């Protein structure tokens, strides 16, 4: 039986927004001496003025209106609530394209890619390059909530996404792109369901680290080529920038969840420190993102109460008893877009040995949140890659 799909609009209640403002105004600020450079973590010198803007000027209703320009749906699959944004392509034969985000991303990190992908002619592209754009929220993230079913990690999500695309939306085959955890999910889909995929585009290819844990690199200096000078060092340096959240989320996420679910300032601090350290922003968040964009990402976690379940996604993924197929080589056509400011820099050699690598693009700029930082570069790369696979 086809799962029942419900269309809905994103809308917070007035009481939720009033409660948020009350909490913001009554923040008990931690002392923060000698930290203007963020050496100890999120700086109060930056966060306090942002919170004042949040109270006085930020307009959630305007952000709701932006999101509600698109169609949003909910469906329950195997007891898991799944939200997805759906924008049909403008041409007669669009390729279905599944975009999967990571943490601390939300589905809205893809906002500036939606229209250029769906209607390329209106955005300086070629006719025939259009896509049906499908953007789900990962289980337990944002509007894919509340998640009460245990055991939902990467492998389970790959199965859910296959059901979403085939059973709910009726596509026999589809394309997929992923960043951060979304890249891991997309890679797993290519391993588990190669016949369903036209091609996949990743911000990185990562060999499984096994017992080493989620997000751990197994690349050594000998794996990098002459054109990848400095990439191994960047990969090692990036490991330090992800260590704290990997440790907490993979081992005891609920302990922190109580604090972040109670304090919007605490939540913003935890999320924005990652956004600053993992973006190619030179330490200046607002050189890449507007204040409204930064706060909208925080708001989606706050209003849906999903910081706890989003962190548990690491715990579940690290413990899934679902290894990839014995022959885990990826036979699906693969493209990789390398972001020079990303916290990881995986070698081309691994992808060449393990996958059907068709395209390897080193972008001139962009950090870990590529779709939000350099959407135009990724859109152009997607169009070019899938043009040959249509």
From TrEMBL:
One of its GO terms (molecular function) is epoxide hydrolase activity. Keywords: Aromatic hydrocarbons catabolism, Hydrolase. It comes from the Bacteria. InterPro entries: AB_hydrolase_fold, Epox_hydrolase-like, Epoxide_hydro_N, Epoxide_hydrolase. The keyword Transmembrane does not apply. The active site is at 180 (nucleophile), 314 (proton donor), 368 (proton acceptor). GO terms for biological process: epoxide metabolic process. SUPFAM superfamilies: alpha/beta-Hydrolases. Signal peptide: none annotated. Belongs to the peptidase S33 family. This is Alpha/beta fold hydrolase. It comes from Prauserella cavernicola.
